[in-house]
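Researcher: Predict the fold of TusE/DsrC/DsvC family sulfur relay protein.
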Amino acid sequence: METTIAGQIIDLNNEGYLTDLNQWNKEVAAQIAQEEGIELTDGHWPVLEYLQEQYRNEVPLSIRKVGKSGVVDIKQFYALFPGGPLKKASRIAGIPKPASCI
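Model: Structure tokens for TusE/DsrC/DsvC family sulfur relay protein follow.
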């Protein structure tokens, strides 16, 4: 489905995740984050960039893997993206929901 996010027409799947990472930019991320109840700070961007890099390299994502990434530890990850950190962070990063998320 198409929707307008940050003034752009964006393609989303039925769960609200971007279907094309090329449509992602920081304004889109900020609006999706706002929908998730998160105000993005300097601490969020390295995590989002890490998730996108892993996605581009086709590396399966898990909370444990993010916690061991050196970008953020698990406690910080939960603090930055409360209530489902990997699901919310992936949605904000413009990547599909990881298979490890139910």
